[in-house]
Amino acid sequence: MPASRAxxxxxxxxxLGAFAVxxxxxxxRSFELDRFFLPKEVVLHATALLxxxxxxxxxxxxxxxxxxxxxxxxxxxxxxxxxxxxNGWLAIRALGITWSGLLLFWSxxxxxxxxxxxxxxxxxxxxxxxxxxxxxGQAYGLLDxxxxxxxxxxxxxxxxxxxxxxxxxxxLPALLAVSLAARSRFGYWLSVLATLLTVGLLVLTRSRAAWxxxxxxxxVFLLLGFFPGGLWRDKVARRRLSGPLLAVAAGAVMALALPxxxxxxxxxxxxxxxxxxxxxxxxxxxxxxxxxRNSLSLVxxxxxxxxxxxxxxxxxxxxxTPEDPSLDSEGMAANPWPSSDWMAVLSERGLFAxxxxxxxxxxLFLTGTRAWLTGPRGVPDLAPLVLASxxxxxxxxxxxxxxxxxxxxxxYVWSLAGVLLPVETFPxxxxxxxxxxxxxxxxxxxxxxxxxxRSVQQVRAMELxxxxxxxxxxxxxxxxxxxxxxxxxxxxxxxxxxxRCKDALPFARQAAHLFPYAAEPKxxxxxxxPR
Length: 531
Known about the structure:
Elements: H1 5-23, H2 34-55, E1 61-64, H3 66-83, H4 88-139, H5 161-180, H6 185-205, H7 208-226, H8 235-257, H9 269-275, H10 283-301, H11 312-315, H12 341-374, H13 383-400, H14 407-420, E2 428-431, H15 434-465, H16 471-480, H17 485-497, H18 501-514, H19 519-528
Antiparallel strand pairs: 1-2
C-alpha cells in the first residue's frame, strides 16, 4: 500500500528537521553550551510533535515487539524518576529529549512500513553531512562565524568537536549503505564524496569515542555483511564497495596531510590521540574512570530511581573526590552530564531503567542481525545490517560520552533505528480504534507543545539577558526561565553589585535551590543575608 499524503508530508518534515537540528544555534556567547543545545531542542521537540501528529491518525493497527515494551517501560521509569528529582526543571528537560526521541522512533518506524525508508535514510544521511560540512568549514578556515565555538574546534554548529564526531560516526553506516544502493552514478559518487568528507572530519576531531565507534560499526558492517551475510556474492556490492573504501582511506590521508586552521598544543596531535585510545592512567581517560567510580556512589544511594533525569550535575559534587577533575572553580560539575550515556542513565534513572534501555538496544541489534542473516542479503536489503551497525556505533560512543542525552543524536539515532527496523518483526498487533488514536494524539499534542514552548522560552530568556541592559529586563529573563541556574545567578549578581541585596535574595535562593552545592549562590546569600 503506497504512503498517504500525510505520511509523505511527515517524512519531508522529518528530513527538514534533520537539517534544521544540526544548523540551529544562537549567538549568545555567555551561554556557551545552551546556545547550541536549546535551539536544537526546539527543533527536536517540534519535529517529533509534527511528525507524530501526521502519523497517528492514519494508523489502523498498533504493532509492538518486546523492544517496544522495554522502551515504554523505560519511559515510564524516567517519568517517575523525574517526579522525585531535586532539580525538576532539569528533569523535565532531560525527560523531554527522551520523549521526543522515542516518539520519532515509533513515528519513523511507521513511515518505514509505508515504504518511505529509503528516502528517509538518504535524507538523514544528508543532514548529518551538512553538520560535517560546518565543522570542516571551521577546521579549514573557510567559515568564520560568531555562531561557532572557538574553544572546542572544529565543532561547527555543534559547539564541540566531540558532538559532531559522534554524529559522523553514527551516520557513517547509513552513508555506506546509500553508496552501495545508489540508483545512479551521480548519486553513487556524491555519497562516496560525503563518506570521504565524513571520515576526514572524524580524523580532524581527534574524538577517541568516535574513532572507536567507527572501527566497531565498520567491523560489524563489513564482517557481518560480507562473510556470514554473503554480500560478496552480490556483483553490485563487489563493484561499488571499492569507492567507499577508497573514500575512507583518502579522507583519513587528506585530513592528516592538508594544512588546517586548528591550533593543537602537540606537534603530533593525531598520533597522540591514537596512542591514548586505551590510556586510562592519565589525562581524560583517568578522569573518566574517577568520574565513573564516584558516580557509582550516586547509584548506590538511589539504585531504584537514581537522582533524577538531568540531575547528575546537581548531586555529583556531594560524592566527588579530591583527585577528580570533574568540578570547576565554583565547585560545580564542569559538564551537565557524565562522560557516558551508560553512567548517566544508571546514576540518574536507576538500575532498572539502565537494564530496560540496554535490553532494548540489544534487542534492536539482534533484530537487525537476525533479519540480515535470514533475509535476502542483497544491496537493496541493507537496512537490517545498517541498523545493527548504527546501534553498535551508538553503544560505543555512548560508553565514553553523552549522546542520547543530547538533541541531535537523539533525533538521528532514534529516527534511523525506526526507519531501519524490519517491518515483519512485530508479532503483537491490535486494531487502532478512533478513540485510542484521538487519545494518543491529544497526549502527544499536549506534551509536545509544552516541551516546544518551554524550549522556545529558554532561548528567549537567553536573548533577553544577553545584552547588558536594564535590571527589569534581566529579571524578566529570570522569570521566563526559572530553571536556568546561570540566569538566576547573573540577575542576583547584578542586583548585589548595585547594592540592592533585598532584590538579589529571591534569585540567589532560586539558584541555590536548583544547585544546592554551588558556591556562588551561597556567597550572595551570605553577603546579602541578615547580619
